Amino acid sequence: MFQFGFSKMAMKTLSGSCSSDLSSLFRGAFYVTRTRFTSPEEVFSCRGIGFSTDSCVHELFNSRVDPPKLLSAEKKEAKSLLSLFLMQQYLSKAAAARTINKSDHFINHLISRLHSAHKSRYLVGRELITLEIRDTLNPYLQSLLEEHGNFIVDLVKNFRTAPIEGKPALLVCRSHSSLDSKKPEAVSYVSAPSPAADPCPQHSYLLELGMDLEQIKLATRRCPSFANYSLERKIKPLVEFLLDLGVAKSEIPKILVQRPHLCGHCISGKIIPMMLYLEDMGVDKKQWAKVIFRSPGLLSHSMQKVQAVVNFLLELGLSGDSIGKVLTRFPRIVCYSVEDNLRPTAEYLKRLGVNVAIVVHRFPAILCCSIEGHLKLVTKFFYERGFRVEEVSYMVSRFPNLCGLSLTESLIPKWEFFLTMGYSKSELVKFSHYFGYNLEQRIRPRFALVQELGLKIRLNLMLVRLHCDFEKVLKMNRKNIPVDKVSSHTESK
């Protein structure tokens, strides 16, 4: 704690302009501040006589000089947070660092928001801890992402502040319309080439590859830079790399439409290291063609984001082999936020009473189901039909895919048909896989045949068997019924 003196004139101004209580407030604030000021003017500015207590406090906050070390630490934390945020938007670590180096105005803006959100803390000289800084800035960055979408990086780099009299500094950047103009310009470039000029080489190559004009335009809308990627240095190397992995040429257009950003990533510096890491985690290298087709965005995520998902799966209790199978079967899981999506869903499943590790191993997509939009609706569906919590838990544990089925297209029609079959609810609890079978192609025709033959067969035996095995089940349960009659019925169905 440092002490510092005030000139008599300054103290006279203070005592004459503010109440004694306010004077005490200022003195308390000065003595807890952890830096040295050379003059009162660095701390506050009182213009005129008779201003209110609130205006004095506002002047004190806006005019104070931040301790250099504290301000430097805050900027360092803000840059670290912004770097992580940018990498979550598919920027490499190097690209994020380059963006931050050009974003001094935006960093200062973040610090300004931090100070505005915690005025009372700064008035008494208390430092913010890292968690408080992140809790303040993270929601703000997410709100900017929702507002500006793909142009968030441009916004960060081109941020400007302009002081407005009587108001805090406001954002003055390239207008949203200016940012949005990138999309129509890029789309126009690929959709309306000049008839007098030779066709654009990128355009011609993509058409020969099997992409149609609408697909090229869609890819360009999603990634305006796609229109300017070098054919020889970006697009062709990626396509040839995917073909070498075993991806079918007919599947390349869909991959480029879904994730045109892939063309902008360095194969040797970004994509291959990510593949090697995932192989170490258990992803089957023979399945890369299928994995990439299922989720082209997998290879464009930052290493930190993928590691966060892997660490979370380990935290749930999945083994290394199980994690490899999860990433191979459902690579899209890495597209979801651990804290915003995966962890809340896991907690909901735990409250339901299921073993999350086992359920995720069987049906990885369950972690990405919306709690409010789907999971609660499914569990409510069964509760309303008289199933107990323990029964629903058992059903989900035995058949996790239950949570991914549509209420209107699957659960409701199959439940209504089940009510006509004469089975008890306990039979359905034991065999919740019933909801996974096609109603018109398997459930209804097989039950009709069993009924026609006057047999009574357990639900699982009726549905789980293959066609030839189903005939054997019928033979074992029927008496005095010709085999050819059974076969003709099953073939006709």
Explain the layout of strands and helices.
Blueprint: H1 8-17, H2 20-32, H3 53-63, H4 68-87, H5 93-101, H6 104-117, H7 119-123, H8 130-148, H9 152-157, E1 161-164, E2 167-171, H10 176-180, H11 182-191, H12 201-209, H13 213-222, H14 231-244, H15 252-258, H16 267-280, H17 288-294, H18 303-316, H19 320-329, H20 338-352, H21 356-362, H22 371-383, H23 389-398, H24 407-418, H25 425-430, H26 439-452, H27 459-464, H28 467-477, H29 483-492
Antiparallel strand pairs: 1-2
Task: Provide keyphrases for this structure.
493 residues; mainly alpha; two-stranded antiparallel sheet; 29 helices; globular; disordered C terminus
Q: How would you characterize this protein structure?
A:
The protein is mainly alpha-helical. The chain is built from 29 helices and 2 strands. The protein has a two-stranded antiparallel ribbon. A hairpin with a 2-residue loop joins strand 1 and strand 2. Helix 13 runs parallel beside helix 15 and helix 28 packs antiparallel against helix 29. The longest helix has 20 residues.
Summarize the structure.
This protein is an all-alpha fold and 493 residues long.
